[in-house]
Amino acid sequence: MRHILLIPPGSFLKRDYDRFGIEILKKFFSVKIIDLTPWLYPDISKIYSKQIYQCDEYIPISNKEDFLNSISEINSPIVIDRMQIDRKTHWVRSELKKKQSFFVDLSLNKAPEKKKDILSRINMLFSSLHKPKELFYKIFKFIEKNYYNSKKFLPDLIICGGLDALNKSNLKMKIHAHSMDYDHYLEIKKKNISNHLSYAVFLDEDMVSHTDYILNNVKSPDNKDSYYSLLVKYLKKFEKELNLPVHIAIHPKVSKNNLINLPNLLKGIKYSVGNTAELVKNSSVVLLHCSNSVSFAVLFEKPTVFLTSNKLKKSWVGSRIENFSNLIGGRLINMNEEIDKGFNISNLYEINFKKYKYYKEQYLKVPNSPERSIWEIFSEYILKNSEVINEKK
Questions:
Q1: Predicted structure pTM score
Q2: 11 vs 16: CA distance, rounded Å
């Protein structure tokens, strides 16, 4: 049976086991999950130490020797590569290349990014001038990433979750598919609405302490006290003035420590974890900053309201929120300004269906791609094209 090596971008949780379709892949392949986080990102590994999903396929890697041992008896594996780009991951890819690996890139759940102009880059540079060590580190990481990006092996196959990914790739081997969120959408779209009470859902994205900040070498856009104080104040006024309760869909990768602190931070606002898609499906309106889970609002055709603040606007996330709002066509509201005046509910429930359709086709689903799990589509493709894949090694 052919080997598949999945190398996730961070700590491996139960959510990842489901999203990467391990149960489906195991029907056709021998699957190994190579978790490099204990070696590459020990701080992240500590945060999620009690949440790691310890399945039979899971292999934690603490150093180079661990990694070499994990692949010592494997030849010609199919590698689902979700690693960052730096010196250590370049070494990992080089070792896998020696094994005649077949590399698969997942261009799924890609967030649309606005290209940074020269002025924004200059502003980011000047913002660190008073912190020489921080500035030097940013320059070093920028040079390192670009250097190893130029040396990165091109993948042999790409799974495209939308036309944006499909059109940008020059690879000959492409799978027309959809995002991971679309997989979940397929699972629940036919389920009956279980809550007939009207409510708004806020899509939390762990704005203060998301572990992706460590992976991507960026700072939190705001501090805990400032961010939650404003957010709670805004959401409570929203509830009162619109007579519409708010339910917060907590980011699914929230750490246990942060989860324990939520009651104190949210001060009575209802919240839950692990049911974001269901909450969006049953909601009246979706509030968010720039969460990728906006995909559920698009798929279930729910109106969207994008929330920013004075602090968020000045941070790296400010342009991202604005870009999402423009793409989706949802209202953009500055919470600082809205709190000091009455809420304007005009156009609150309007949807720009033309923009929703564009977003779906570009980022959520290649038109006419199969209405099946990504991993069923992928497995079928690999099995049908095994001879071509062997020739590439």
A1: 0.90
A2: 9
